[in-house]
Amino acid sequence: MLSTARHRCVITALIGLATLWLAAVPTPASAVQTLRLHGSNTIGEALAPGWIAAWMTSRGCTGVTREVLLPGQLLFTGTGDCDFAVDLQTHGSSTGLADLFDGKADLAMASRPVNDREHARGLDTGLGDLRHPTQELVVALDGVAVIVHPDNPLRELRVAQVRQLFSGEVRDWSGVGGRAGAVRVFARDDASGTFDTFRTLVLGERRLRGDAVRLESTHELAEAVANDPLAIGFAGFADIGATRALAISDAGVAMSPEGFRIAVEDYALSRRLFLYRAQETTPLAEDFEAFVTSAEGQAVAERHGFVSQDVRAYADSLRRDAPASYRALVGDAQRLSLNFRFAPGRVDTKAARDVQRLAEFMARPENQGRRLVLLGFADPNEVAPILAQMLSNDRVDAIVDRLSASGIAVSRARGMGGAAPLAADSGEAGRQRNRRVEVWIQPPPAS
User: Fold this and answer.
1) Is there a domain that residue 239 lies in?
2) Does 128 map to a domain?
3) Are both 424 and 380 inside the same structural domain?
4) pLDDT tens sequence for the chain (447 residues)
């Protein structure tokens, strides 16, 4: 047995070693406030670090540094007037929402909207209504690009053909008009919001083919497709790398994942990027939310290849397949980079915020005297044609009322019924794309 004196020496030494070990382990939660930002790899891989660095700097932090704690987990700290840290974890949209429910995250990053089960869980657990404008925040826009090797001769596909390739119904490129060769499919993992979006917008009831190569990283997926002439995959608009994105058609003309078509959500695989929060959250979380939706935060999103929500006017923005009645209404107008869309029975959370964005745009000196034209649309499959006309009128009137309440005058508002659909009859997601109000701006009347 050890003598008492020797025993004390051993204990003292062990305590000293333990103290040194604890000092070396980062413990931000006990030392400073920590914002816990968990979820989507699409947002978290590059955009969230860009937001975090700019936000921390705006709050007085200098020397902002990032430390890799584990794969997919970063700790951001700063010097100067910096009394907080940021814990960023990027393992997929579903993991971020799970951490929000479990109290392990302050904000959940998601590259797809909450589903019915998650919405119900939020209500049941007291987290709140995750479809309310104060808890569901659209932070940028993106498009899921269908990507191939640069040498692939195909330039466009229909959504139905993409579904056939990824489900395995078609396994040779010649089956969709391409050069003969066995199709090799690359896809994101099940925790990915990008995969959830792709499953909703493309696969529907079909399953991904069993031999698809599944990857957690968007960057790795794009690299794999860029190195394989027979490959096909999908990635966010900002992450196509050295691959080539195909133009995609659903109803009407094929469109490429370009900034304007994503901004107005006409591109068939457009999507929104979200932050979700509990009804009661921290001041740090609220401040970060305000930053990412500010002009500075949206500029960061653009620098990282995503599409901002700033309102802009685009010339030559009419669809090639637009009917004559549509062309007559907007012939001398420019289209604005927003759409008002509708959840069942109401405008959605982005539309509620877009009213304020449009008010700020119209208040700019250069827009004085310019006139707004609003065109409402219904899904052609939801009701009979005569009722579709009435429904599109109701939708455009609802937006006119909201704009009028904010002091925005509308020169002309017209329902277009089920004309110019964006999506074929592909379930609720497609029908919601067709239920919209477009916003156009005309020059001042000639004096």
Assistant:
1) yes
2) yes
3) yes
4) 444 444 444 344 444 444 333 333 343 444 579 999 999 998 998 999 999 999 999 999 999 999 999 999 999 999 998 999 999 999 999 999 999 999 999 999 999 999 999 999 999 999 999 999 999 999 999 999 999 999 999 999 999 999 999 999 999 999 999 999 999 999 999 888 889 889 988 998 899 999 999 998 889 999 999 999 999 999 988 889 999 999 999 887 899 999 999 999 999 999 999 999 999 999 999 999 999 999 999 999 999 989 999 999 998 778 877 888 888 998 889 999 999 998 777 788 898 889 999 999 999 999 999 999 999 999 888 778 888 899 999 999 999 999 999 889 999 999 999 888 888 865 677 788 888 999 999 999 876
- Count of all residues that appear for the chain in the document: 447
Nearest to 293 by CA among 340, 357, 238: 357
My answer on whether 215 and 135 are in the same domain is no
Is there a single domain that holds both residue 136 and residue 277? yes
Burial class (CB in 10 A: 0-12, 13-18, 19+), 59: middle
Residue 306 lies in a domain: no
pTM above 0.85, yes or no: no
CATH number at residue 199: 3.40.190.10
d(CA 126, CA 110): 20
Three-state secondary structure call for residue 342: strand
**Strand (E) positions, 164-269?**
184-188, 213-215, 231-236, 244-245, 247-249
Q: Are residues 128 and 230 in the same domain?
A: no
d(CA 433, CA 63): 44
* Residue type present at position 114: V
Distance (Å, whole) CA 340 – CA 417: 16
Structure tokens at 207: 């399953």
Backbone angles phi, psi at 82, to 5 degrees: -135, 95
Contact partners, residue 218, CB within 8 Å, separation at least 6: 41, 42, 45, 188, 194, 235, 236, 239
Whether residues 194 and 253 share a domain: the answer is yes
Distances (CA, A) of 382 to 259, 340, 377, 444: 29, 18, 11, 37
User: What amino acid occupies position 252?
Assistant: G
**Residue 55's domain spans which residues?**
28-141+272-299
CA dist 410 to 108, 197, 370, Å? 37, 34, 10
